[in-house]
Amino acid sequence: MNQVIQPEWLVQAYKNIATSTIGHVLDLGHVPQIFPMSPQHHLVGLVRTVRLQSKNASQLRQVLLSCRPNEVLLIDARYELQRACWGEQRSVAAIHCGLAGVVVLGAVTDRQALLQLKLPVFAQSVSCLTTRNEGESLVEMDIGIELNQFTVQSGDLLIGDADGVFILKPDMAEAYLEQFQQLEQAEKNRKNIFFKQEKKEDYYF
């Protein structure tokens, strides 16, 4: 009998896995050109997918209210890449709703404010051109997002840090976890052995 994958257990396990460790092994699941607003942010959580296809992004409010705590909101805003759909006020609302973080396939705004907030926000770019309450707000939830030769669905596992973002299917995340843990430990051991013979302050500030 196959063991049932526990998503919450995977989330906790991957909090100790760097995206570069995953990238030593896998290509599939890498999300190109997406980085955190703050390099200190490390994000792991289960995805909730959203697609925005209008200048009006007001329906994102309903999306936030329907999200479950600790989810990662993945917004496909490629409909208009130069127009930011996310900023300070929505980040404050996301914190209030208990989200683990937000990843925007597109632009965000209010960069300085986002750097001061506790919510990890990842995006492709920053823009002063924003969405507006003009016309209909076209937002779809829980849809498949085609991305870099794979399809992201709600419930997939997202791992993000200063080096970028990976999104893995839960069964793949479980299958590779032990290998990733071994790679992390081996890297730690190599550094420990080296710095037993060298002064760490000669290499790091």
TrEMBL record:
It comes from the Bacteria. One of its GO terms (biological process) is methylation. Keywords: Magnesium, Metal-binding, Methyltransferase, Transferase. One of its GO terms (molecular function) is methyltransferase activity. Its cofactor is a divalent metal cation; Mg(2+). InterPro entries: RraA/RraA-like, RraA/RraA-like_sf. It holds the Pfam family RraA-like. Mg(2+) binds at residue 110. This is Putative 4-hydroxy-4-methyl-2-oxoglutarate aldolase.
